Amino acid sequence: MVGKIRLGIILILIPVVLAASLVSMLLPEATLTITPEGRLSMETSVALAVNTPPEQGEFEPLGSPDMLINPPTTDTGGWTNPTRAYDDDGTGYANIISGTPSATHTYGNYGFSLAGTTITQVRVRYDAWSIGDATAANQQEVPTSDANNTGAFTVSPLWSKVDETTPNDTDYITGVTNGGGRYTGGFTAFSVPAGATVTDLTVYFRMKSSSTAAKGAACLKVDSTYYSGTLVATTTGWVTSSYAWANKPARGS
Q1: The pTM of the whole model exceeds 0.70
Q2: In the prediction, which pLDDT does 93 show?
Q3: Exposure letters 111-124 (e unless 16+ CB within 10 A, then b)
Q4: 19-29 mean pLDDT
Q5: Bond prior to 143 in cis (omega within 30° of 0)
Q6: CA distance readout (Å), 145 to 90, 158, 220
Q7: Could you tell me if 239 and 207 are in contact, meaning their C-beta atoms sit under 8 angstroms apart?
Q8: What is the pLDDT of residues 88-112, one digit of tens each?
Q9: Pairing mode, if any, of strands 103-108 and 29-36?
């Protein structure tokens, strides 16, 4: 039995989406809802444009209104480090990384003195951002080195024969041991953004054999332990197969 195999690996991850909306703003409180993951770094300040009326018997033409800007002094809700959003000093932020759909946080007590003034405008300023959008970001890696070869695959170096993302059926490794064996390739580490969720890890392989009795499977090595996917029967023609792990095999999550 002669088996031939090509390998590839793909990582699928989904950074969590941020949608920011101002759900209510009435003095003395301003409420922000961020869904479902985001960061808030701001003067959660309320700005009032006011006109002061003239004294009795005096005439004062309407000019440019005064602008008063105050930050909040109290808050309540489900965000982490909420007081860091009291001002925009660049040293921190309030954030939320969980919740369904997220958590609402209310800032209040802006400390305006409104006696004798006419409010002509109210503005709320905030800065908000997230790690990304809702589009799945796929990362794909191919072997860059040979780690182990218990199946006597040929011809060395093996990794350079199985490092294509588009199949090249003239470039492959051949297993010549009837008892079977395993080839382990070394891969560059994936770059997973902080706070992103990995939804699955898929190993792709392409193989054929001179005997339809031969079988092959995708395999992951976690620390020193190997975890195999479902065995797939070979044919005399090239066939691409894959196996996806939704959870980390070593701990099941």
Answers
A1: no
A2: 84
A3: ebeeeebeeeeeeb
A4: 29
A5: no
A6: 43, 8, 15
A7: yes
A8: 776 778 887 665 546 788 999 888 8
A9: antiparallel
